[in-house]
Amino acid sequence: MNTALTIAGSDSSGGAGIQADIKTMTMNGVYAMSAITSLTAQNTMGVTGIFNVTPEFLARELDAVFADIFPGAVKIGMVSEAVLIDVVGEKLQQYGARHIVLDPVMIATSGARLLAEEAVAVLVDKLLPLAELVTPNIPEAEVLSGCTIKSKDDMERAAAGIADRYGCQVLLKGGHSVSDADDFLYEQGKGRWFKGERIDNPNTHGTGCTLSSAIAANLAKGYSLEDSVCRAKEYLSGALSAMLDLGAGSGPLNHAFDLRGKFAADSRTESFDKGN
Description:
Distance between the termini: 28 Å
Strand order of the largest sheet: 3-2-1-4-5-6-7-8-9
Number of strands: 9
Shape: globular
Number of helices: 8
Order of helices and strands: EHEEHEHEHEHHEEEHH
């Protein structure tokens, strides 16, 4: 079975972070493993607390994974402190990790800052050069590129600038009003727009985590980067279109929208024959 590792923070409400990554990877057909960088106390209305693991413990988590079940791809999400970013970079280089997808999580959907300002430079220096793909949203791309993004042309220039500067491919997500749900992939000096359907669903908690994890899962299965992005966007659209509505704020997606089988059945709608 193909495998993938997520390095990210835990979301106690289950909609983003490690929990969303594991659900997404599982639904995209790979065995999911995790290295938790921090615990967060959060729900659909916001983040009320962050508790980071120690650098030594994060190193042990990564050693445990790579020494036993080597991942076919790695997704990096929330790593909120510079010392933790250093550990991630060192361990990925030590083990020769492949197919690294970096989601440069800086600010939560609720508006809470998830990456210390002083850690941004370390993220740029240590992780971007290791990444096969980086998946910033528009505010994150503005930080990484130093450019203001107000149009599709701006998105194209920013993506090319990030790729040329750090030697990675870039998927610049357009969900922050500039290009509706269209994303721009800059790969090996060439650009491609991925059209996305604007789904009228206010519950978008964890969309970035979900997209990057789905891309990593498909890379682990051997798909090209372009095909991995296409498949991941289709999966994300399905999870949004399921219109799950939980919580009082921006709720989670239905990661299991395509789940079938007797173990997924609801006891209220399907009986189970205990004799079988």
